[in-house]
């Protein structure tokens, strides 16, 4: 692998209904990361997807759709490594070793598990509970230094850092004996930020925009056409006040704050700057401007996704090439980890 200053890893679950939050909070930032001196790996995390039951035929389609979204948004599969998680078995293998490093108490604090398992906790899959450990393995199999994610993943990233730290401490002597200076795993930096780190539902400004929200009007899907986007923005919940001219005026107005944040992110501007332009305007003026901006930003991506989806052979070739390149890096990590923990491993010719 060429020597890069940074190694960037991130993933998206193929669980259907890719939305504006996934795009602004994650995928668009993956594209931006390609400009840095970094090897970027972008993964369709299908092992994570099955922590909640997925229809097998639908899952196959969703894996191709997320890959198409990556490419349509501007991820270059030659420059970056694009692959699906289940093609690189080292993720699951490293997750097992991390299961023996992570503590039960750490996982018991994960709020996403509590939210997703809900009241029926006894009936949740063990995979859903263990999700953050697999996520740590995804990241650390490549010893990634940076992970661009939405704000909802902050706690999971903290767990990844805790696992890396504990592994480095538990095996400090073996790590030093193997010649790795300053610990084996990096303490990965989460890259969370900007006006769209947490895009909220269009129907309720206190709830995250989410794939699994039963109301399709709560989110803008990446595959929505211009009419659907404009209609969802027109119907988005708001309050009767005009937009304020300054940021503090958005306090206690979650829906207004969300729409201004979406506009800012799509336009590549700050919230303050958007308010300088639209301060005093009614939503009847702001919403059409937002709809035009959303349509002009998303329509080319949707069109390219449609074009790419018509050629599943091409998508699968991209994934196969990415898996091969990813596996070469992950296997190096696994070999070193096996030496560090004391396994007798098969020597390769
Ligand atoms: N609303 C959001 N705003 C900003 N970023 C978001 N992300 C998700 N929702 C928002 C970011 O998108 C990346 C991929 O997310 P994921 O598909 O792996 O996981 P998720 O958080 O489970 O997605 P959803 O849409 O919220 O699905 P459900 O409904 O199943 O909970 C991540 O970087 C995530 O932060």
TrEMBL record:
ATP binds at residues 13-15, 21-22, 150-152, 199, 208-212. InterPro entries: aa-tRNA-synth_I_CS, aa-tRNA-synth_Ic, Rossmann-like_a/b/a_fold, Trp-tRNA-ligase, Trp-tRNA-ligase_bac-type, Trp-tRNA_synthetase. It is found in: Cytoplasm. SUPFAM superfamilies: Nucleotidylyl transferase. A motif ('HIGH' region) lies at residues 14-22. Keywords: Aminoacyl-tRNA synthetase, ATP-binding, Cytoplasm, Ligase, Nucleotide-binding, Protein biosynthesis. A motif ('KMSKS' region) lies at residues 208-212. L-tryptophan binds at residue 138. It catalyses: tRNA(Trp) + L-tryptophan + ATP = L-tryptophyl-tRNA(Trp) + AMP + diphosphate + H(+). GO terms for molecular function: tryptophan-tRNA ligase activity. Its EC number is 6.1.1.2. It is an enzyme of class 6 (ligase). Belongs to the class-I aminoacyl-tRNA synthetase family. Catalyzes the attachment of tryptophan to tRNA(Trp). Homodimer. This is Tryptophan--tRNA ligase. It comes from Methylobacterium persicinum.
